[in-house]
Write a structure and sequence with these properties.
The protein has 389 residues and is mainly alpha-helical. It folds into 2 domains: 19-119, no CATH class; 156-371, no CATH class. The protein is built from 17 helices and no strands. Helix 11 packs across helix 12 (228-238) and helix 11 crosses helix 14 (274-292). The chain is globular and about 60 Å long.
Length: 389
Amino acid sequence: MEKIKAYFQRHGNAPFKLGEGRVSGYISATLGLLCLLAVLCFLFPEWLTTAHLRNVYDEQFARTTLLLGLALSFSLGTLNILLNKRKRLGITGVLASGLAVFLGGTNVQINPIGETPYSLGLDWFILALLISALVFIPLEKLYSKDPNQNILRPHWRTDLTYFFVSHMLVQFILIFITASSSFLVGWAASTNLQTNVQTLPLFVQFLLAVLVADLGQYWLHRLYHVVPWLWRFHAVHHSSTHMDWLAGSRIHFVEILLTRTTVLMPLILLGFSPHALNAYVILVGVQAVLAHANIRIDGGWLNYLVVLPRYHHWHHARHKDYIYKNYAIHLPIVDMLFGTFKLPPKEWPTHYGIFGKALPSGILRQHLYPFRRPCLKPEPTTEPGALEK
């Protein structure tokens, strides 16, 4: 393990060079491991896959995707072994995909799906990682805000771990939100109001859901920055010093529960239709990745209508003039309403992260961080990150 860690420290952040086999090695290892996880999903669907997501994709789609992944993993792994002196990545990809084939490969039989009170969202993680990587990595290379930032920038493994954990625990989060909503629905929900909402056209429901959700999340987000004990959780998200498609995944689990409950509970109580809620959830997933991405978009008038990367990058900037600005997640008009909108005409921030002492590295130590007492007395300052000195 120490040798592998040292290898990544020496080579993981080095620029890629065409023809050296590193790109093929990383792709092979990633696809090989995902193919192995996919076969496990076939073998243990009731424990590893989510019931809601199983209704979205069919078996033939899953098997075709698995076949393509196995073929690419084998071929690119072989290419890495032939071209690169350090063959660990290629060997990892070939061995992982080989094990997937040994366990059944594309011919693996699906075991009977029983009823379980809880299951991990392994299928959700596989699909989300594949789609996000296939869409955003090419965009970040073609339209880079920071062309010198590597795909495997510092701390990418930490953020990939956050991505894995948050997607694996998606069903637990949904159970928590559903239970919380069920507790309130008896006395807080209005049947007449829900009926009126459900009679609205689907597109109007969707727009209204986005506005309601952003209003709630705006004030919670603002509290995260001004209430010291809430900031300690939110500081984990702001601790990333590099912005890309993975950076938005760095969120403390307590913050995930608080935010998802605060945002989704009013939408459920107001009676928005499942289709409107599903459309909103898709928007959340896409915009969360896009807003943090290393993509230079000249949005023009769209910058004042929808939260795009430059808008949210300034929220993450280590710049004293933007500490309490740009809280909105979807609609900049929410910041305009409450006086927290601030966006320079063309400039992008150059430094990201929190003020004061840096947070510990690694997902485990960062999750324990909010529960530790501060080592030093807070200094008198208006910078929220300095509360963590």
